[in-house]
Amino acid sequence: MIKQLLTGMALAVAALTAGAQAFPSRPVTIVVPFSPGGAADIMSRVLAERLNKRLGQPVIVENKPGGGTMIASEYVARAAADGHTLLLAASSLGIAPSLYAKVNYDPVKDFTPVSQVASVVHVLVVHPSLPAKNVGELVGWLKANPSKANYGSVGAGTSTHLEAELFNSVAGVKMQHIPYKGSAPALTDMVGGQLQVMFDAYASSGPFIKDGKVRLLAVTTAQRSKSLPDTPTVAESGLPGYEAMPWLGLVAPAKTPTPVVNKLYAELHEVLKEPEVQTRFRSLGLDIIGSKPEEFSSFLRGDIVKWAKVIKDSGAKAD
Question: Where is the secretion signal located (predicted)?
Fold first, then answer.
C-alpha cells in the first residue's frame, strides 16, 4: 500500500515537472483591460516583447477594455488554467466586487497571482491659489473651509476617487467629489480653478506640475516613489496612516499549475531587472515591484478588505 502511494506521488510530481517543461506549448496572451496607448498597455507590450524571447513562444497583447476592467477579468477567469492566458490585473480587480452590484468573478477564488509587477505613481496636487504648501497645511485649510473644496477624479469608483475618499476619512474632512471622464478634462478644470484638489497619476499630471499650473504636495504610497524621490508621501507630510497604491500585476486563471506559475514569475523577474525595462517603466510613471506569487496573493487579500471599507464608508457606487 505504501509502495503504491509513493509510486503515485512520484508520478504526480513527474507529471507536474513535465507540464512545466512543456510550457509554453503555444502563444501566450496577456489580456489588457484598457484601450491601446495608455501606460498599462505600453507596459504590457514591453513585457510581452521580452517574455517572447525568454519563453520561446510569441507573447501577444490583447486589449479588452470596458466594464470597469470586468470584461477582461471575467474572460481570463474562464480561460484554460494552463498559463497561456494571463490578465494584466489592476487595483480594480479587487475593488470591483465592492463597487458594482454584479461582478461575475471572485478576485481571490478565480485567479492565481503571478506577480505584482509595478505600482502606478499617484500624486496629490492642489490649485496654486490654495495657501497650502504641504499636506498638513492642506488639512488645516480644509477644516477651516469645510464647504469650499471640490476635488476631481477620472470617474466614480476609480482609484483617484477612492484615494480622495480615503483622504477625507483619515483627515476628518469633507471635500466635494466631481467625477470626470478621464484626467484631461479634470486637469483642465483644475487649472481653471473649478477644482481645488486632485489625486492623479503622475504620468498625466506631471506636465502641469512642471509648468506650475498645479502644485505637487505628495505621493500617495507608504514609501517615497523611486520616480519622485524628493517628493514626500502624504503620510510623512502631514497625514500619518494614509496609504494608497494603485498597482498593475499579472494573474492567471485559478488552478494554473504551480510549476507553470513559478516559471512565469522566474522569467518575469529577470525581465524586470533589465536596465532598459526599468528606464521605460519610470518614463511611464511606474515603480517596479516584482513580488513573488505568494506575496502578491497576500497583498491582494489585504487590498480587497481595505478598499471595501472605504467604499462602504463613502457610499461610492459605480454603474
Answer: 1-22
